[in-house]
Amino acid sequence: MTGQPPNGGVPPGVAFAAPQPQRTDEELGTVSPPPPPYAPPAHYQPIPLPSPAPVSSMFVPPPPPPPPPAAAPVAAATPQPQAAVNYQDLPGSSLAEVEAPSIRRIGYLFAEKHTVLHFIPDRWLQMDCPGREPMYRPYMFPTNLTVGELMRQLGVPAAEYGHQYGITEVHEMGEGRFTAGQTILRDSEHANKTLAQIGWDECRGTCRRPVWIMPYSTA
Question: Does the predicted model carry a pTM greater than 0.90?
């Protein structure tokens, strides 16, 4: 004996029942009634909501961008006439003055050293209209040719009626601009010098800047 009541104090006629699992309405064949509808309490007062604002006052489209500024009128460029030069009329442009022998095939021996001269026939082209594309033609001349003979072949006349004629070397300044350099008259002492002696040698246009020349006249 432990001093405790038998069966934990439970009468002998009472049996323990095992807990039964809870069955669903589908297993019992019954349907639970729906929950009662929600009813607001008696003291409930609805809060009035403001009426929606019209769409036009809710969204204001941004103003259109200002028009672009009008472009400044571009003045039409005044056409500048180009000097019509027939390079075939230059005295040194052909061998017409040379009496060819009665030989069907004949060769020609060139000088050992040459230089390239850019000849601008219009002497006012770059002085009065800077920025224009110059009309010129490059010629190859032997460096042992005299300046006087060069001018004769380019059609530069000798002095007459008190006027002097010659050639002026011009230097490139960029963008079609030139500046005047040395001027050699056809009847001057410098006309007896060769092209190499005045600095127009075979290096011009290669390792040194090219030579640009134009006619000069006091007329």
Answer: no
